[in-house]
Specification:
Distance between the termini: 20 Å
Strand order of the largest sheet: 1-2-3
Number of helices: 2
Mean pLDDT: 97
Order of helices and strands: EEEHH
Strand content: 15-25%
Helix content: 10-25%
Structural class: alpha+beta
Radius of gyration: 12 Å
Shape: globular
Low-confidence stretches: none
Length: 82
Amino acid sequence: MYTFKISKNKSKKYDVFKDGKYLVSFGGIRSNGIPYDQFYDKIGKYSKYNHLDESRRQRYYKRHGKKAEFESAKYFSHAYLW
């Protein structure tokens, strides 16, 4: 259903495509080119930045909230990175 590619946007990790059409970019990369850590990268291209720290994951959700609009950048971040 979804296809993930390394993002062409230098400030994002992934681009999401549905049926070959671009949907959204998600996952943050700092201005110096270093990706932000995530709980667990289910896609796997940035898995070296997995921290697997449950308390850090809960703080992330506290800052960003758990609800996300379907097929939004937040939706994909929650489903595939956190």
